[in-house]
Amino acid sequence: QEAGGELVSSSTKWHKHTVKVFSMLKRNIASEEEEDTEKPDHLSYNSLSKGCSRRTAVGVFFEMLQLKTWDFIELDQDEAYGDIKITAGPRFAESPPTN
């Protein structure tokens, strides 16, 4: 992916909004490594964005697509315009880069 002519990858420093969304998802979704937890194994995008402004909901959606691209989360939608199920991806336990 390119952003402003520069190659953007999961190993470069993340935008603060990406870090914020990922941190929120990590607080609310159980990863495969977490055995005894009361966290659910998935979140609903509709419930996550309920009560948010349209701008905030779109921003969170964009950051989720970025995290999906880098395999930090998985997104599943059963039907067009249906709810989106958010689950931990293969790299969910990793921390965002800080360089």
Written account of the structure:
By secondary structure, this protein is an alpha+beta fold. The chain contains 3 helices and 5 strands, in the order ββαβααββ. The protein has helices at 16-28, 45-49, 54-69, and strands at 2-3, 6-7, 42-44, 73-77, 84-88.
Which structural traits does this protein have?
alpha+beta; 34% helix; three-stranded antiparallel β-sheet; two-stranded antiparallel ribbon; globular; 99 residues; 3 helices
Reconstruct the topology from this structure:
Layout: E1 2-3, E2 6-7, H1 16-28, E3 42-44, H2 45-49, H3 54-69, E4 73-77, E5 84-88
Antiparallel strand pairs: 1-2, 3-5, 4-5
Terminus-to-terminus distance: 19 Å
**Which structural class do you get from the secondary structure elements?**
alpha+beta
Shape: globular
- Weakly predicted, low-confidence segments: 1-7
Determine the strand fraction and express it as a percent band. 15-25%
Number of strands: 5
User: Secondary-structure element sequence?
Assistant: EEHEHHEE
Overall pLDDT level = 87
Total number of helices: 3
The major beta sheet can be summarized as: 3 strands, antiparallel
- Percent helix, as a range, is 25-40%
Please tell me how large the radius of gyration is.
14 Å
Strand order of the largest sheet: 3-5-4
